[in-house]
Structures are given as structure tokens and as C-alpha cells.
TrEMBL record:
Organism: Cyphomyrmex costatus
Superkingdom, natural source: Eukaryota
Protein name: Spaetzle domain-containing protein
Length: 138
């Protein structure tokens, strides 16, 4: 059997160590970088009202590129967004994601999974189709 030695109290003080770590975390938090989105966005709260179903959660948030929300749904598919970002060659591109919800008929106790594609943000991107690969330019 081996003798396991523990650090002496004078060398290790858990309270002091915890306090020092807390200070370190506080300093790091103050030094964190702040970032800004390169494209302007509009956030819209969507309440889910349905005569047949109750949804959980009952609302969600969509994030659109500014200007994209103003287009009709059929125009969104064919019309490129005019908003530019950083350098004129880059474009603001609408991002979407799947939202996972549950729903049930108003007269039922049984919940079922439900997914919906929603607008989730706006990214500043290089248009490969019109300008080719970015490494050919930079």
C-alpha cells in the first residue's frame, strides 16, 4: 500500500484559490471582445394562433435581413437582397433553421412533434456564383 500525501494547508487554501479564480473570471469577462453583426436585421415575434392546434411554445422569434421582410414570399425566392456588407462585393444572405415545437389538438391530451422552417439570421457572405471562389481574389 502506498502512502498518498496531501498538500499541507499552508500550501493549499481552497477558499483563497476559489477567490483567485473568481477574480480571474471577472477580469476575463471585462476583457471579452464585443462583436457586431455586419448586416442589419429585423427581429419579429410570431404568435402561433391556430383553430385546430395548441402549440408549445406559443410564440417564437424570426430574424430577417433588413429589406428581406418587406418582399412578398414569392419575391424572396427570386430577387437577390440588395443590402451590402463590409465590402461592396459581399452580400447579406438570409439564413433559415428548423424550429422544433410540439402541438396538440385543442380537444386532445396527446402532444405531437412539429417542425417549421423559420428565418434565423443574416450572414455577410461572398457570392461564389457571380464572383467565383474568394481565394481567387484575395
Amino acid at each position: 500500500m502506498r502512502d498518498v500525501s496531501y498538500p499541507l494547508e499552508e500550501y493549499y487554501d481552497a477558499e483563497t484559490t476559489a477567490r483567485e479564480l473568481q477574480q480571474l473570471n471577472r477580469h476575463s469577462r471585462n476583457m471579452m471582445h464585443e462583436y457586431r453583426n455586419l448586416c442589419e436585421t429585423i427581429t419579429k415575434k410570431v404568435e402561433i394562433f391556430d383553430d385546430d392546434y395548441e402549440y408549445q411554445p406559443p410564440h417564437y422569434y424570426e430574424v430577417y435581413c433588413k429589406g428581406y421582410l418587406m418582399l412578398r414570399e414569392d419575391e424572396r425566392m427570386i430577387k437577390p437582397l440588395e443590402q451590402k456588407c463590409v465590402y461592396p462585393a459581399f452580400h447579406c444572405v438570409q439564413r433559415n433553421r428548423l424550429l422544433f415545437l410540439v402541438r396538440r389538438r385543442w380537444n386532445s391530451e396527446c402532444w405531437e412533434p412539429y417542425t417549421k422552417e423559420i428565418a434565423s439570421g443574416c450572414d455577410c457572405m461572398w457570392p461564389v456564383t457571380s464572383l467565383g471562389e474568394i481565394n481567387e481574389h484575395y
